[in-house]
Amino acid sequence: xxxxxxxxxxxxxxxxxxxxxxxxxxxxxxxxxxxxxxxxxxxxxxxxxxxxxxxxxxxxxxxxxxxxxxxxxxxxxxxxxxxxxxxxxxxxxxxxxxxxxxxxxxxxxxxxxxxxxxxxxxxxxxxxxxxxxxxxxxxxxxxxxxxxxxxxxxxxxxxxxxxxxxxxxxxxxxxxxxxxxxxxxxxxxxxxxxxxxxxxxxxxxxxxxxxxxxxxxxxxxxxxxxxxxxxxxxxxxxxxxxxxxxxxxxxxxxxxxxxxxxxxxxxxxxxxxxxxxxxxxxxxxxxxxxxxxxxxxxxxxxxxxxxxxxxxxxxxxxxxxxxxxxxxxxxxxxxxxxxxxxxxxxxxxxxxxxxxxxxxxxxxxxxxxxxxxxxxxxxxxxxxxxxxxxxxxxxxxxxxxxxxxxxxxxxxxxxxxxxxxxxxxxxxxxxxxxxxxxxxxxxxxxxxxxxxxxxxxxxxxxxxxxxxxxxxxxxxxxxxxxxxxxxxxxxxxxxxxxxxxxxxxxxxxxxxxxxxxxxxxxxxxxxxxxxxxxxxxxxxxxxxxxxxxxxxxxxxxxxxxxxxxxxxxxxxxxxxxxxxxxxxxxxxxxxxxxxxxxxxxxxxxxxxxxxxxxxxxxxxxxxxxxxxxxxxxxxxxxxxxxxxxxxxxxxxxxxxxxxxxxxxxxxxxxxxxxxxxxxxxxxxxxxxxxxxxxxxxxxxxxxxxxxxxxxxxxxxxxxxxxxxxxxxxxxxxxxxxxxxxxxxxxx
Length: 747
Hints:
Elements: E1 6-8, H1 17-21, H2 26-38, E2 51-64, E3 67-78, E4 81-86, H3 90-93, E5 108-110, E6 114-121, E7 124-127, E8 138-143, E9 148-152, H4 158-173, H5 182-189, H6 208-217, E10 224-227, E11 243-246, H7 251-256, E12 264-268, E13 274-279, H8 287-304, E14 312-316, H9 324-335, H10 343-350, H11 353-360, H12 362-381, E15 386-391, H13 397-409, H14 416-428, H15 434-437, H16 451-465, H17 474-482, H18 497-503, H19 530-533, H20 549-554, H21 578-590, H22 603-617, H23 640-644, H24 657-681, H25 725-728, H26 731-736
Parallel strand pairs: 13-15, 14-15
Antiparallel strand pairs: 1-3, 2-3, 2-9, 3-4, 4-5, 6-7, 6-8, 8-9, 10-11, 12-13
């Protein structure tokens, strides 16, 4: 059996140890080890990648039915990844439906993607960390992309077991220095071979020109200006070299409190309202300094709040919204629903699926984020109010909410280039601490909060509800979430632009050389071949039609986005004295003295929100206009492709969204063919349309797990777990509870 690379294991999760050993005699292992060596799969190393330790005669378990089977091979740990090299992997390379990543193989785990490591000692599962006195007979690795790997070490030499287990634990869990990340080894080794994609037109916002272009695109250049006062990061290391502030604001004010207490522009609406963000002023106890801060803020506030022409609504995200602790706790519970070790565990937990899902609160957090973004959208669109987002450092929830607002209001952000530019502007240049929030250095687990993943999950809700409005697919969002843990791209591996610019330069290098040329994740050709990249583009997306001069004349004062707006009248100016209270409240928050409720969080605000929300959803959707998600209970769903893709029991054979997409593509091809025939009759030539992804041509061979898993055999157990049958009762009870056992792919 070993000569073929597959070994039969114990019959169940608690199979007696002797029953496994009896299948293979020690002499068989010795004999077949030579056979495997002859056809050993070559380890693919990236530039700068080095092998640290390895072990042979390792069995990688494959989840199938209620038994365990394994593939025989080598387990290798490098300074970039953990890789398993089976002796029978070549068959996968020839499958045309395989969605392959050129950097990370199917059996590769980057060191940054490792979440938890467990060992099995005498059938007991224990968490592994630090120095071990005893080494496990089985190694289980839970990954941040929710894959689960299980390796049997029973046939591996004792010294190799010690080396590989200790090496994996050390290189995935020990605290690291920034300069020791593989990112720098790769950039140094591949410096002369790095080629950027000429088709990548993502705006990086690393120059004054980029910010001026964005101001002009959104018509924000009438009231706001791009400044270079922080070009050398002398004002604030947290802010980017270039950013946008209100035109009346003197540049010397930016330097006063190292960028704190300054309204920084995010985006401008077609009606002139703007979205701004601000970080809190430093907390001070001295009354004299507090008075100086209050006077300073009064001057700043007057530059953006000039009633009745410009009214500002403040949203304090630090004290009246989600906390980072809530997000961290919710996701920790949520991810456990998908880290399934075996088929038996899947069916045992399936009966409790909905209660476990609800208790995690992850979907409720998504709903709250979308609701907050809709509230801000209503203020800007319907009431023509500027909105100022407040947060301690304006680098977590500010990034999340401002990005969602722009995604709902600006159709440009729903194109692939626009979406990538949005992430560059609000997250990368906005100073989101990717290094800390992803815990890439393993220095502080408490700082690890999946804020960016929460954003992608919110975006997926919009993509799922309004597919034709987005140029990219859910597969694009999934591979983008995976890219958080691939340390050859600089996009998600720094806390700020200053940290990146400092560490990619000559500083700390003994020899004089050119600054490192770090790759950006937006160059998708590094990870995927053109054929695979077709799955990142939505074939159902229709670009906004370009109007000729005659059509533009009649629509001079009406923006496209207004076509889908509810007819909500703008509110009259608030009563006298309100602005004073609003200003005082804002000052208290910026000085760190929080109060429990915002003055403007009244029932009237909720009434406006409900009217705006209901009116928009009662009208036909303009996919190139304002776009609001449904946020009622059942409308917020589990991102099935990302969270369920590695669980064979959760697949729908020949079905799911893949089958639906395949049928739609067939119809599109037929319509396109008819259109071409019509064009031929009129002797007109049109630009060729994008072809449907050829990987979707035969949906019968695929499953709902496509494109991340091939058609897999899955457990033959019934949809209703037998463990729950006794509690279900007779047929009448079964009918009543039918809705509780829907397929996971439709949740």
